[in-house]
Amino acid sequence: MIEHHRSSESGLTADVPRPPVRSEVSPRRRRIFLGFSLSVLLSGILVSLLASLWLPFPREPELLFIGPLLAVGFLLVEQLTIDVDAKRVGWTISFTEIPLILGLLTAPFEVVLAANLVAGLAIQVRKRAASHVAYNAGVLCWEIAVPFLIAGVCSEAFGAAVPLWLCAGIGAVSSSLISCGCAVAALYALGNGMRVSAGLLLGGRTLVVGLLNTSIGLVGYELAVNTRWGWALVAVLMIGVLALYRAYSGLLREQRDLEALSDVSLRVARSGQHAARVLSDPDAPAVSAIGEQVSVDEWEPVAERIREQLNATRVVLRLSLDPRGEVSTLVAGGPQPEEMNTEGAALLRECPLLQLPGTHVRSFRSVDAPEEIRRALGRRGAHEALVVPLRGTNQLLGAIEVHDRVSRWRGFGHADIRLLHTLASHLATAMDNRRLLARLRHDAYHDPLTGLLNRTGFREMAAEALQDSTAVVLRVDLELLTTVSEALGYAWGDRMIVAAGRRMREYLGTHVPVARLEANSFAVLLRERTEGQAAEIAASLRELIAEPYPLDRLVVEATAVAGYVSSVPAEEDAEGDVDVLLQRADVAVRAARNGEDGVRGYVPSMGQIFLRRFQLVTQFRQALESGQIEVHYQPKVALPGKRIVGAEALVRWSHPEYGRLSPDEFVPVVEATGLVDALTEFVLERALVRIRDWLERGLRLSVAVNLSVRNLADETFPERVREAFDRHGVPPGLLTFELTESSVMADPDRSLPVLRRLRALGVVLAVDDFGTGYSSLAYLRQLPVDEVKIDKSFVLGMGTDLSDMAVVRSIVELGHSLELSVVAEGVEDDSARDQLVRMGCDTAQGYLISRPLSEERFESWLWARTTREYPKGAPELGETVLRVN
Fold this sequence. Notes:
Layout: H1 27-53, H2 66-79, E1 82-86, E2 89-93, H3 97-106, H4 109-126, H5 133-158, H6 164-189, H7 196-226, H8 230-279, H9 287-298, H10 300-310, E3 312-319, E4 328-333, H11 346-350, E5 362-365, H12 371-380, E6 384-392, E7 395-405, H13 414-445, H14 455-468, E8 471-478, H15 481-488, H16 490-508, E9 514-518, E10 521-527, H17 531-545, E11 549-551, E12 554-556, E13 560-566, H18 578-593, E14 599-601, H19 608-626, E15 629-638, E16 643-655, E17 659-661, H20 663-672, H21 676-696, E18 702-706, H22 709-713, H23 717-728, E19 735-739, H24 741-745, H25 748-761, E20 764-770, H26 776-780, E21 787-790, H27 792-796, H28 802-817, E22 821-824, H29 830-839, E23 843-844, H30 855-865, E24 866-869, E25 881-884
Parallel strand pairs: 13-14, 16-18, 18-19, 19-20, 20-21, 21-22, 22-23
Antiparallel strand pairs: 1-2, 3-4, 3-7, 5-6, 6-7, 8-10, 8-13, 9-10, 11-12, 15-16, 15-23, 16-17, 24-25
InterPro entries: Cyclic-di-GMP_PDE-like (IPR050706), EAL_dom (IPR001633), EAL_sf (IPR035919), GAF (IPR003018), GAF-like_dom_sf (IPR029016), GGDEF_dom (IPR000160), Nucleotide_cyclase (IPR029787), Rev_trsase/Diguanyl_cyclase (IPR043128)
GO molecular function: cyclic-guanylate-specific phosphodiesterase activity
Organism: Actinopolyspora xinjiangensis
């Protein structure tokens, strides 16, 4: 990279149109530039000899004392430079024309040339820019010789008709243009030329600044020579001009910094959009690998932009994107120092430049740094460095190093430090958001227990595969899981699930999509396979996951069933529907349970399942009237006092032909056909009757009833609820409606007004299965709810999974911060209950307290498993309080 300080005489540095640092200069271009530098030096010497042979100015020996003063002047104006970067163009505004015009008016050519060379080469030595001494020395000669020649020709041509100061002024302005022209020519020699329009703009700015500085020098000279106390006026003038330059520099610096922040933010945002597209792949690798793959590549322009903004020789981004501790290093500018080839977390932990507390920017200079820091700078090939850590939430994400400012002799300033601190804050926030985005997107498509695809991820993957080719959807269910969970606990059942998923993944390989659909059910997508091949794979998987599972000192024998379906059934319209394929695979699994080998392929005759669903729909109203459908109650207990506060109403159907039906089987069917209103009113009536009965016996217990999407879309529903309250004489506060986020957000424009009207009645509203929705936290504040129910999957996993415990604690804290009551479902053991008590959870519900019971059995349970307490020992004075024994 070209650097010569004397270009600032023109008001612009020679490295203003500099080539990008990170593009390496080829050996051929280096040779061309070397030849160009020698040509500049030789031509500068020749033009200096020509000027020394013919000069119009007197050469009195007594004027030689001015030489040291001019050298000091040249050095002084270099220290008063003002660096400005506007729209990625670097300016160095200085006052070099002022000592030059004074030299033209008062001193011999040889004296001014010597002063210029001494000052210029001294600065080059100070900046350790010896690689371009020949080029810079030649430019220094040109910058003095040409102005003297122009001034001499002008004086000889016009004589007394033109004042001497005008000839000197023309010569001084020419020095500015010569410096700028040499810089542009040097860039062309290196193969990084600039457009004609940019060159003309550069020349125009150079001319303007040169005229201004020359005018100041001429006015100062005339005042000092011809006016009494003129030097005082000159001093005032110089102070004012310097203040003006500084103010203008500050404004441009602020503009430049704002543009840089905007540009970096835009680049990071675009990087985030690209990352989002990559991360949305359901079959994406681990989050850490994704983050490294996307972030390092996409942030390369960010590093280069920071380097350009701070006018540095090099910017190093060290990014710790891998939880295992791997550090990725990105270098903008070159060449790459040897230390940056080091890999591993030790680079962040052991490097003395990076051991920084907080997020403040640290400045290091080799001239005054301790020996350890000097060695670190030496390994980087730098004399000055700004270092700032990138800190996320309780984690060091990386660091930014900025090495050696190019166009500023005295190094980085306070404005550079402030800008770097702001940029680092933006990058740290972006990295934190990127990691969070990666985790959210990964979790949206993957099962948290096994790490396999979840149902959503499998559907996305299968839908994409079915667009281009045929496929077979294979479903495998692990049996005996419920028995294991009941005997040993859900943690052991989870261990079986994880082991089964691992076996399937190892057998099929990483290229075959495998998903966990629900508790013990897995799905596999086989591309370009025949049904015969699918049958063989299904049989192998069934045998594989049915092998014994060693659990601690026990060995559990398990069984499995498998079903599969092809994506090209004969002459059917739904052949590409993933949900249809999954449903048919499920039908095949059900058929496999009745077979001998445990494997079945779907055949159209299995469509009798649809007939069953049709029968359930047509028989539902009769079941309501005949008493086949019952309401069971599961008690809810306040923590930590074990006081019974109410129960949840759960529906059960005892079918005369199919036996006890699971709500998961008939409720979706009823809801899909529009009969859910009848079911909700049935449960609501039974719940209000039960509450009224309890009130008459002095028991103030609430009942929770589940609502569906159709209930929330019915504008008349709140009015019917109010009429039911009036009919039964029940206080609204003893009824709780439980709803899921998905039911609300299916049509928020219709459901939210219904919820607000229910809330106005005094009904308690609760969000069920909280924590499982993708955007539960985002919409919670919009819902007019009083209570959140933590999904039982998190509560069941608290004992074995720290992340589940963290989720439960976060939900409890969030609910309380929003002044909501928090209910935990799925409390199965004393340990979970004690943990919830310590977290401050309000209410518990689960098998530890009781299973769902019919009305008669629930009444018996209340008498057998609770203790009654009366106000002041007198039952007639108030309500009875029930506590679990």
